[in-house]
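Much of what follows relies on a compact textual record of a protein's fold. With that in mind, consider the following protein and its fold in token form.
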Amino acid sequence: MTRPQWLEEIASLLPDISELAKQCEEPFREKCFELLLTHALKEITTQETSKRTESSEKSQAQLTQKYQKFLQQYNINHDEIRRLIDFDSGEILARNLGKSKAEKQRKLAALIALYHCFIEGELYVPKDELKRHCEQFNVYDVTNFSKYMRNAKHNDSKVFIQHDNGWKVSAPGEEFIVKTIKDLLGVGDS
């Protein structure tokens, strides 16, 4: 398992911190080490927070055209969707996904598709990513996983179409994505 970047940075600084602390008189070495380590941690976390803020501002300014068009077409606000998806990490923030495993999986797929529209300009659900999220939400059903996607319908039309190693959202399926978003946000149809 790979260590987070901040931990790698601290690990690379530890020899220097230790060397500096050894230059202090004996009764102060431990406290000196502690202060230097705390300062290094604050520096690194401040830098990471700054990078995330810059990334978020950049992503706001550079929303893909298809994503912008999708939001405008269906009168959805990007800031509201941020309550459901962390666009920096791809983490699904929504929690009340429904009752059945099939319903929860389809809603996760809708959110993943929207995330991919945001970052790549295509409403697409990678199979491995959906599986990972289903496992995270404890709804992964190995027997019915593909069937749930294949049988997803909205107004008698297929929502997800098998494509490469995942699913594309059909044109009528876009309405399912919108309905899912509005349901999760508690705004209903407008």
